[in-house]
Amino acid sequence: MRWEAQRIDVEDTSALPGMSSVRGLLRSVQVPEFPGLTFHEVRARSALNKVPGDSAMPFPYTINPYRGCSHACTYCVSGDTQVLMADGSQRPIADLRVGDHIVGTEERGRYRYYVMTEVLDHWSTVKPAYQVDLADGTEIVASADHRFLTGRGWKHVTGAMRGPDQRPHLTTNDSLLGFGRTVATLEVSADHRRGHLTGMVRGDALRVLSVEALGLDLPMYDITTGTGDFVANGVISHNCFARRTHEWLEFDSGRDFDTQIVVKTNLVDVLRKELARPSWRREHVALGTNTDPYQRAEGRYRLMPGVIRALADSGTPFSILTKGTLLRRDVPLLAEASRRVPIGLGISMAIWEDALHADLEPGVPTPRARLDLVRTLADAGLPCGVFLAPVLPGLTDDEASLDAAIRAIAAAGAAGVTVIPLHLRPGAREWFMAWLAGAHPELVPRYERLYARRPYVPTEYRSWLSRRVAPLLARHCLDRRSGGAARRVDEPVATGVPGDEEVGFPDGSLPTGALPGVQAPDPSWRSVGTVHEDAGGPEQLRLL
Fold first, then answer.
1. Domain hosting residue 61, numbered range
2. Which residue in 54, 166, 235, 458 has its CB near the most CB atoms, within 10 A?
3. How many structural domains are present in the chain?
């Protein structure tokens, strides 16, 4: 696991089994008040994350106190890839199940050996497909991000020698380690099993001949194992992960993201040091752009009060995006901070039917509780914009549901609202579609059409939703821009996706105004009634 960025020189035996050797981990904690969650406490080397210069987001820096999200709101190889089982047989990866015993590898000194391991997680996605051909006739279809073990270490299927896509990747100079798919599966016996589980991993005639894009998207499957790898078509394959914020730490894309929470325990001290640097320009800092800073973990670690004080003390404007009502605890502190620096607060809410909310947002406060939070913020004189997100086609996009939601948001005192249709990224897509097939099978064909080509709904749906939402915003007086000017009748509600110039944030969600020497955000980012898919806050907007 890549914990070097939070490295500490402390050995703590309280870490969970298998985690004690992780560099940078202080300790792992399981506590009764948070059943099913594990908190991995680390010491951060940095607190402020620089947003890439070419990003269209309206903030140059972010802070993420946590990795993973306890709200719990689901790379890969093709399904026919043969995985070596512990009994010596081979089985398509699509047919594996959690608990199956398979063959992985482990390092012993200078060599790597086959060992038995267990399937801990199993999931699928849809990715652009690449075919890797080996000299012995082995063929493997995998995604560009998948990694295989070569004589020179782990390498991705594709990459670049320089630039933003630079990473180790397969070339015709590489040979993959393993025995190859062309080795016939022998009759299963004790000797056969013993040979697999005690043999040393080698690469015999497994030179890479070519890596070619197939030009189509295919269903891909991956697993998490106890060893972190498995044998795929006779070569050593690394576990790959879909949710990128947890992928960097090499947790899996499903349950781990919801239950394995990384906590930057020294975040406030590190942040204060960074804000005190003479080079700090007091630019807008956003919280909640990756994982929710007011998820349940904050109730235990209380990092946000220190973060708020540090930003206010340094004269740094900031914004917070959350669906966690724990923010209510810090309302007095936020009110004090707002008298010293510009701030913005964004609350996300989506589902108003109790049973649907329980199914899709099991660890999240109810929309009614979040409405009460909006009302509390308004009563305290604090700015607050609401992200009505995500709108679910065929489930929550009817006029009555949208009207009820927008009416309630307006009555709670929100300064503005942005309406966002559902987007289904790999990982979340598979989980949601499986749920939909069980709960609303009649909608599956429609969703397959809407999300056939990309994670976002097509332009036609966005335009339709925009036309439906616009009169509702006007009806409830939420169609006004900053300064009180109403939107023209012929002025369309903007649509867009992350990175588009049209993407807007609701009034109240971004800091406005500026203190002397403080760079204010571009006012063109403040919009009301904007329909788009994302607002820079994956946890608040990712639904699951």
1. 4-73+257-541
2. 235
3. 2
